[in-house]
# Entry
Amino acid sequence: MTKRLFLAAVSLLLFAAPLRAQEAGGKVLVVLTSFFANSLLDGGLLRVLQFKQAGLEVHILFEGSSVLAFLDLHGELDKPAWQKKVKGLEDDLARPGQAAARIVRPPRYQVAGKKLGLPPALRTLLQSVLDLQIPYTVSAQAAGDFMAFDELTAAAEPLSADPENPADISDFIKQGYTVVVY
# Structure
């Protein structure tokens, strides 16, 4: 009996808050962190669509390697100039007497010398999110880390304010956004 009461109380606490947020027109900040873990990017984008369909106010923050998705959309990943920049960085990271260090190691991807892009289904999903005009921000720091700051600025992508630090989410929290990280 005590166990049932405990489970009922926990259920009320867990499910009541999201319901109140939805009733009050809740806000959700979805932080997408990875381009290489397709399941994270895919799952995060699907959740964005579901939150939007549920009537929630949604904002997306692209952090970490997820900024590469925008380079792919703008065709930058295939350009020799960007690949040359990244190849130069790989050479700079190499230790003396060793082959060039790799920035990314998943066997399906190489940064330089091989096509690096979104699978077609994921590209379609990202494009559908963008077509819905869901507001988003691309981390300026991550863009710089992946040597893509100039390309994303030229493409007029909305970059975060500080290129030296991760995007500041404190304003979203102050405005009552729930933060979900993928």
Notes: Helices lie at 2-23, 38-53, 68-73, 80-93, 120-131, 140-145, 149-154, 170-174. The radius of gyration is 20 Å. The chain has eight helices and four strands. The longest strand covers residues 27-32.
